[in-house]
Amino acid sequence: MAKWSTMAQVDPILRLQLSLMKA
C-alpha cells in the first residue's frame, strides 16, 4: 500500500520528465 502512495506522488514528476524528453 505504501508503494502505491509513493507512486502517486512520483507519477507527476515522471510525467514532467517525459514531457521534457518529448520537447
Outline the structure in words.
The protein is an all-alpha fold and 23 residues long. It contains one helix and no strands. The chain has one helix at 2-22. The protein is rod-shaped.
Task: Provide the fold topology.
Layout: H1 2-22
What are the main properties of this structure?
23 residues; mainly alpha; rod-shaped; 0% strand
What would a concise description of this structure say?
With 23 residues, this protein is mainly α. It contains 1 helix and no strands.
Gyration radius (Cα, Å) is 10 Å
Strand content: under 5%
Q: Whole-Å distance between the termini? A: 34 Å
- H/E topology pattern: H
Largest sheet: none
The shape is rod-shaped
Mean pLDDT: 81
Q: Structural class, from helix and strand content?
A: mainly alpha
Task: Determine the number of helices (DSSP H or I, runs of at least 4 residues).
Answer: 1
